[in-house]
Structures are given as C-alpha cells and as structure tokens.
From TrEMBL:
<keyword id="KW-0627">Porphyrin biosynthesis</keyword>
<dbReference type="GO" id="GO:0046872">
    <property type="term" value="F:metal ion binding"/>
</dbReference>
<dbReference type="Pfam" id="PF00762">
    <property type="entry name" value="Ferrochelatase"/>
</dbReference>
<comment type="function">
    <text>Involved in coproporphyrin-dependent heme b biosynthesis. Catalyzes the insertion of ferrous iron into coproporphyrin III to form Fe-coproporphyrin III.</text>
</comment>
<keyword id="KW-0456">Lyase</keyword>
<keyword id="KW-0408">Iron</keyword>
<comment type="pathway">
    <text>Porphyrin-containing compound metabolism; protoheme biosynthesis.</text>
</comment>
<dbReference type="InterPro" id="IPR033644">
    <property type="entry name" value="Ferrochelatase_C"/>
</dbReference>
<feature type="binding site">
    <location>
        <position position="303"/>
    </location>
    <ligand>
        <name>Fe(2+)</name>
    </ligand>
</feature>
<feature type="binding site">
    <location>
        <position position="72"/>
    </location>
    <ligand>
        <name>Fe-coproporphyrin III</name>
    </ligand>
</feature>
<dbReference type="InterPro" id="IPR033659">
    <property type="entry name" value="Ferrochelatase_N"/>
</dbReference>
<feature type="binding site">
    <location>
        <position position="208"/>
    </location>
    <ligand>
        <name>Fe(2+)</name>
    </ligand>
</feature>
<keyword id="KW-0350">Heme biosynthesis</keyword>
<protein>
    <recommendedName>
        <fullName>Coproporphyrin III ferrochelatase</fullName>
        <ecNumber>4.99.1.9</ecNumber>
    </recommendedName>
</protein>
<comment type="similarity">
    <text>Belongs to the ferrochelatase family.</text>
</comment>
<dbReference type="InterPro" id="IPR001015">
    <property type="entry name" value="Ferrochelatase"/>
</dbReference>
<dbReference type="GO" id="GO:0006783">
    <property type="term" value="P:heme biosynthetic process"/>
</dbReference>
C-alpha cells in the first residue's frame, strides 16, 4: 500500500515504521470477559460505559454468558495464549516477560501497568488480540492505554508502543488456511453422507459488524480514498483472498464477507449483510453447504461460540445447509510463532538492529504501520473531544475531533 507519508519525527519513519527499541516488557492486551454469573452485568456495563446500549440488549447479551455459567471463554484463552507466547519467546532466547491486561475485566490494563512499572519495567510493547483496524479493534486499545497512563500517573515514566495491526501477517493467515481446508473436507463429507456429493459449497467469511461511521473512519484517510470499500472491510477481503489463494480445493468456489454480532440502536447503520440473512439468500441461490470462517476473531470466544456455533449453525439446520465452522488462530503454533516474529521485528538486539529484519505480510493490504496518523479510526466522543492515545501522532487530550 502507499499510505500518506508521515511527517517523519524522532523514532519513526515516513511509513510510520518505528525504530527498534530495547523493550523490557510485553503487554498482552485483550477484551476481558466475565468468569461467573455475578460478573456478567458489571462486565457488560464496563463494555458499554457511556455508549447508551439499551438494557434490553444487555439482558439479551447476558443470556449468552448465563447459558455458559456466566463464563466467557476469553480469559482462559488469553491465559493459554500468554503461556504459549512465553514458551515461544523462551525458545528463541528472548527473555522479555509477558504481562496480561484487559479493557473490560480484571486484570485491568491500568492495574497491569502499575504492576509492571513497580517491577522496574519502563519500555512496553503491546500486542492486542485484535488484528484489524477500526475504533473497536485498534484505536480503543490505544486510547485505553493513553487514558491508563494518564490516570495512573505513569505518563512520561512508562513508554508504551504497540505491535502493528496484523490481519495480513502469515502467522494470522496460515492457521486459517489449514482450518478452511479441513472444514471444506468436512462439509464435503456431510454432503456425501446426505447423498449430495456434488452439492455447491460456499465459503462464508464472518467478522464483527461495526457502525458504518466507524468503518468509514477506519485507517488512514488517504488510503481509504483509494479503496472501493472502507478500510475495515477491505482488510478482511484482502485476508479472505490470501486464504483462498492458498487453498487449491477452494478455487472456483463462491465466497463472501458477512457480518455478525451487531448491537446498538436499530436506527444506527452497521455493516451488512448479517450472516443469518446472507445464509438464507445463499440457500435460495442453490448453495448446499457452507464453511463459516471466523475471520475477524483471534480466539473462540463468546462471539464465535454464540453467534456462529449456536445461531448461524441453527440457521443452517433450519435451511438444510451443511455447516462447518473453521477454527480461529487461538494458540496455533504458527500464530504464536507469528506473534514472536511481530515482537522480534520491533525488538532491538545488542547491535541496535531489530531481532528479525523486514516485515512479513501475506495479504495485499499489508504490512500495516506501527504509529497511527491523526484521526486514524477516530470516533467523536460525546463531549466533542478525542481521548489521549498511544502509538499515534495525535495523542493530546482535549484536541477537537475532526
Ligand atoms: C470489531 C469488534 C470486535 C473484534 C475485535 C476484537 O476482538 O477486539 C469485538 C470483539 C469482542 N466483542 C466482545 C463483546 C462485546 N462487544 C460489545 C459491543 C461492541 N463490539 C463492537 C465491535 C467489536 N467487538 C462494537 C462496535 C460494539 C458496540 C459498541 C460498544 O459497546 O463498544 C458488547 C456489548 C454488548 C452488545 O451490544 O453486544 C460485548 C459484550 C468480545 C468478548 C467476547 C467474550 O466475552 O468472549 C470480543 C472479543
Ligand atoms: Fe464486541
């Protein structure tokens, strides 16, 4: 891609690529989730703080967690990811420790920053469990870090940078290649067992819907201007194509990008089509089976288990469509090793050069940048200001929004 040149300043170049640093801590930053029935509503209030999600919607979402004992699988998945990252870093002789902090549940990010500062760490590299660009998937993490530094009084004492958005990285793409290929075989088997071995299969890539205004604000303005769709959708389409190109059995099959987990007011437009509506249209058009690919997600958390494995699966059962859901990257060895690569391209070795050269990319919109330009993924706050952020050019509190 050819993004608008940065105003080169100390620490990063005109592409927004940061100079390597001797980071002394890694922050695994994630969404967080409830771990028991009593946590469910406080968690949902944290998630929706100040955003006016109606209570009926909260109650509706609560039932997804309640049905699972009030437990989101996301925290256990992050504990497993942290352990896998630690093992993979150690294997490569990298001794930088990994800390874990969440946006919406304990361990909370500000508390983790205080702990790692107290332990003597000063240069932190954040890796978040969110691969794409948008307010919810990138900027909100940057803001939460910016606000946490300010509120803990650590601003100026602790440096926090972030790993680039990694939707295009081979470590993210390759587990999907293997997963989609396996799922295709499973749907073929289901169709054969149902006496329809030649039935048409469609590959349905699913991601989180976001308000169309967030989609339009995603990524650098000048890049957005060159694309036929918004940057968020374009990134997903780019990854979907990279996955399909790597699977010979998928050649010639129909595929699409659809959206799930819409929330908010029905009057606010969000990205469409919804997966369930799209499946009904596919059935009408003669599709016999689908591989559903949770392209927008890093692990099999509640949005995958409920919206895909429960709701979309039921939709397919009602429609008589064969269904198989491909896995998320989770703790796939290639994903974990890719995370270590993403960290290594930023970590300065003894000679000051990064531990690994270059910036691997397996999809045509990559590689992304380390520092975001003004207004990248911006969202106007209700009080008309934007929040402080890390890893960006515009990090001043109270700067009027565009
Ligand atoms: C783009 C995106 C990702 C993918 C990137 C990433 O992975 O970060 C994501 C992930 C997740 N979203 C999650 C849960 C929720 N998201 C909500 C609400 C919202 N998400 C949004 C966007 C995204 N969300 C948006 C624009 C809203 C509405 C406005 C708002 O409130 O910000 C709500 C509120 C209730 C509701 O209205 O549905 C909940 C409970 C969980 C945890 C699952 C678990 O517990 O296992 C995860 C990983
Ligand atoms: Fe969400």
């Amino acid at each position: 891609m050819s993004p608008q040149a940065f105003d080169p300043r100390e620490g990063y170049d005109a592409r927004g690529v940061m100079a390597p640093k001797a980071y002394d801590a890694i922050l695994l930053a994630s969404f967080g989730g409830p771990e028991g029935q009593d946590d469910v509503l406080p968690f949902l209030r944290n998630v929706t703080a100040g955003r006016g999600i109606p209570d009926e919607r909260l109650e509706e979402v609560a039932t997804h967690y309640r049905a699972n004992g009030g437990i989101s699988p996301i925290n256990a998945q992050n504990r497993a990811l942290k352990a896998s990252m630690e093992a993979a870093l150690a294997e490569r002789g990298i001794t930088v420790p990994v800390f874990w902090g969440n946006r919406n549940w304990a361990p909370y990010i500000p508390q983790t920053l205080q702990e790692l500062y107290a332990a003597g760490h000063r240069k932190v590299l954040m890796f978040s469990t969110s691969a794409y660009s948008s307010y919810s998937s990138c900027r909100q993490y940057r803001e939460d870090l910016g606000v946490a530094l300010r509120e803990t009084g650590l601003e100026g004492l602790l440096e926090v940078d972030k790993v680039r958005q990694y939707f295009d990285h081979p470590g993210f793409v390759e587990p999907f290649v293997q997963g989609v290929s396996d799922s295709l075989a499973r749907v073929r088997e289901q169709l054969a067992a149902a006496g329809n071995p030649e039935g048409r299969i469609k590959i349905v890539f699913a991601t989180h819907s976001i308000p169309t205004s967030d989609a339009q604000a995603a990524g650098p303005r000048d890049l957005a201007a060159t694309l036929e769709t918004d940057v968020y959708s374009a990134q997903h389409l780019s990854v979907a194509r990279a996955i399909l190109d790597a699977i010979p059995e998928a050649s010639g099959l129909d595929w699409s990008l659809v959206f799930q987990s819409r929330s908010g007011s029905p009057h606010t437009p969000w990205l469409e089509p919804d997966i369930n509506d799209a499946l009904a249209i596919d059935r009408e058009a003669g599709v016999a089976g689908v591989v559903v690919v949770p392209l927008g997600f890093v692990s099999d958390h509640m949005e995958v288990l409920w919206d895909l494995d429960t709701e979309a699966r039921e939709t397919c059962a009602e429609l008589g469509l064969a269904f198989h859901r491909a896995p998320t990257p989770g703790t796939h060895a290639k994903f974990v090793s890719g995370i270590v690569d993403l960290i290594s391209e930023r970590l300065a070795g003894p000679d000051g050069a990064p531990l690994i050269p270059g910036r691997a990319s397996a999809a045509d919109l990559g590689p992304w940048f380390d520092v975001c330009r003004p207004n990248c993924c911006a969202k106007v706050m209700r009080d008309g200001t934007i929040k402080p952020t890390i890893a960006a050019v515009d990090s001043e509190v109270g700067v009027p929004a565009p």
